[in-house]
Amino acid sequence: MMADLRATLEKLSNEFGPSGHEKAVRELIKKEIEGLVDRLDVDAMGNLIAFKAGVGPEPRLKLMVSAHMDEIGFMVLQVEKSGLLRFAAWAGWMAGCCWASGSSSAMSGCQGSSA
Question: Domain boundaries in the chain?
Answer without folding.
Answer: 2-51, 74-111
